Amino acid sequence: MARRNYYDIDDILAGQERVPCVLRADLDGLGSAGSGGGTSKVQRNARWGLPYWMADRLNEEDYVDMEVSPVFSKRASRMYAASPESMQLRAICQHFYQFGLQLGDMVPEIPHVLRNMYVQRVYKVARIAQQGQNVEALDFVQSLDKTEARMLKLCQQAQSAISLWHKNQAYALKRAAVVAAAATAGAGS
Amino acid sequence: MAITTRQTEGFTMPELEYMAQHESITIVPLHRMDRIELVRGTVGPFRPPQKTTVPLWLAIMLKRTNRCRIVAPKWLSYEHLRDLCKREEQPDAMFTRLPTHYLEIAHMLLTYAEDDFVDTQAVRRLLQDLREVRQSKTHEGLRMLNSLQLQMDNLSAAEINEIRPLFRHSFDMLRQLDGLAEATEESQQQSQFADQSFAEMDDAFGSKYVH
User: Fold this and answer.
1) Which of B9, B15, B173 lies at the smallest CB-CB distance from A97?
2) Can you give the pTM of this predicted structure?
3) What is the pLDDT of residues B109-153, one digit of tens each?
4) In which domain of life is the source organism classified (chain A) (predicted)?
């Protein structure tokens, strides 16, 4: 488990993704914790979808058996390796890369697949930022997850900053009003 | 003091312009002046029509009050820029050598000292072309991104600032992903090692332990 930042909001949100688990023990009175709800008695070998942060700890205490989430199953990782650019990451998992970082040691191919995917998609993001958004890119832009969307916004801001400055529309560094007032007051007295 | 998002990701363009104004430039002063001692150096006596070297901020200030004429730096001429453009456009060329703050200096000179240049429209167009070629090259360099090192020589300050947020976040993410890949490989190797029996390990380490 590679938990990077305790205080990072994106890590917290990424850990919220649900993971299928098999219960190992009878848990009375906790039936409403799973995605079913209602009954308060839960049998062994019931299947539940728990958030990753919960499932990981319970897995270590042997209350549940955590299984790999369908986001990173073998079939899914083969799909990611085949065509990284056409995957709809926003639909699959909004914090795709962070979730992959947390879940990474469960499935061995995941880090390499994620890495190639990231490099290819970020290259496309940078190209879209440079050329300005056009209609064909709209589908791709809508399929980005949170990290990539933030990257796109940063790139666009950097580009527009230079072009605005070139047209003399950026702000100008001027003397502060306080300093100017003090100077005139000093000169007058 | 409140800081905008732009300022946390690197320098802003006006800040880079401010820093570029320390570069030296040659001027022809129009009035006599004695030596002035400033914090960052001495600005030597002005004896027109002798040329002197002053910091750019002073040159701009004098130009705006009509007290000097600015001599264009050697790299800001039409011919030199055209040669540079040709060299950049050759395939697989590295970035050409340009002053670190060339964008800012060119912008300021072309805004405030237009009458001291021969052909400003052509120079502006050439600068734009040069910038576009270099931009597409940095874009290709993005493909070579890895978590250890990326070397791009001769990028100017403004261009580095432009790609700083993208490259910084990509480096971070790649470093984390690569770290995860190494950790999973190590744990796999360790579990393979643990499967070996003790007898095999003795054979591997030689017969030192046999008595």
Assistant:
1) B173
2) 0.75
3) 988 888 878 788 888 888 888 888 888 888 887 777 666 777 778
4) Eukaryota
The class (CATH top level) of A9-30+37-67 is alpha beta
Q: Taking CB atoms and an 8 Å limit, are A159 and B181 in contact across chains?
A: no
Sequence ranges of the domains in chain A: 9-30+37-67, 71-166
- B145 closest CB neighbour out of A119, A127, A155: A119
End-to-end CA distance of chain A: 69
Q: How many angstroms away from the CA of A144 is the closest CA of chain B?
A: 15
CB atoms within 10 A of CB A34: 17
- Residues B142-191 have pLDDT tens digits of 777 666 777 778 888 888 888 888 888 888 888 888 887 777 777 777 76
Which of B145, B148, B142, B144 shows the shortest CA–CA distance to B182? B148
Fold for domain A71-166? Methane Monooxygenase Hydroxylase; Chain G, domain 1 (1.20.58)
CA A121 to chain centre: 14
**CB of B196 within 8 Å of any CB in chain A?**
no
ipTM, two decimals: 0.74
Please check whether residue A47 touches B, CB under 8 A.
no
- Residue B141, chain A, CB below 8 Å: the answer is no
Best mutation target among A98, A109, A123, A150 (most B Cβ atoms within 10 Å) is A123
